[in-house]
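In this notebook, the sequence line spells out the residues, with the fold written below as integer tokens. This is how one looks.
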Amino acid sequence: MSILRTSVLALVVAAGPLAAKPLVTSSEETLARICLARTESPDRIVAACDAALTDAALTPAQRVELTVARGDGLSWQGEHEAGASSYRAATQLDPRSIDAWNGLGWALWELQDDAAAYEAFSTSLSIDVSVQGLSGTAGTGRRTGKVDAEEARERLRAALSIDPEYIWALRELGWSLFDAQDFQGAAEAFEGALRIDPDDVNARFGLGRTKIGLNDNEAALTAFNDLLADAPGDFATEVYRIIALRNLDRNAQALRESERMIAAYPDRASGYIEKGLSLMALQRRSEAIDTYREADARLGPNNAILYWYADALTVDGRFLEALAVIDRGLALDGADHTDHLMKSYIALELKDFETARAAAENCLATGVNDPWAHYYIAIALVHDGHAAEGLERFGRAITAGLPADRIGAFATELVSAGKYVEAAQLRLKY
């Protein structure tokens, strides 16, 4: 997602491309005023700041202000390393400059150094409260684990209480709520951002994503179509447009779009994944499996490709092949709880209850309290002769959010293991 501050975007757009002209165009302008006004193009801002900083008569405070403005100009033209250096120079000139610390935080964010950015924003907040300090610590703190998700949202709301139109905070709040699967709350945050700037690409994309989460796929498709009309070829938007089409059961169209994506981006996994999923929805399993096999051969080992490859093999009842594929995925960096969960499910189908239980425990060990992992452990325990433990684990699965329709399925597992009394007790309890 874009991380530029609203003020930054507004300044860049307002300035626009300018023809070459003298840096100082009237007797009332000075190099320092041009630098600090930040209304010229970024390269002219930097040039004005550099020239102004050669003035030996500057006060220490003026030198800090000019150095911060120089960092802004550098950052706005994408020179984030140089921008960070300028902000650092400003913090050395004045360790209590909030603008310098916040500027450094944003430059480090752009450089994806979240830990250092968090420290910069935290230093800013220790000096005084600002919307950027609150928002910056929320965003970087959430990503580094230094701030939990709820505290991050509290900081963002605090920033918005100071400046309700601080669009970066609204977007970040939207994504935080989206990650927490509060899709309605996320939609409201993104809609709030769009009331401020109807053209904000990040908020429009976020709103489309939340509409998928709310199962309003027609609205999602409209959002993605509109976004692609304004920004043709945006890869992420194209991917989620295909997902919306699949969710609307427009699988033939989704298949055509995914084939176009493969043609345009043959070295990216998403087109193959979407093609495979579209083929599966069209009951063309063999072609889907061939698609994943082709992607695996062309792209090399890829977690997402191997996951969906294993899934397709599982649906086709080819469990031993599926187990070999998911084991390859689990051997890669980037394997997550879903890969362990897939292995657990496959092992259950193979009646390998020891492996199923171990894989589900590995899923939970990633820190995700997945109800299906508890459920698979419960099934494995029942079939390994530990019905009482299995019932207890099933209760944990229900508490974690396992769908109620699994009660009957678990009763079936108990009966198949000869636990008739326990199956009856399960029905009485639930």
User: Anything to note?
Assistant: Confidence is low (pLDDT under 50) at residues 1-19. DSSP finds 25 helices and no strands in the chain. Residues 228 and 234 are 7 Å apart (CA to CA).
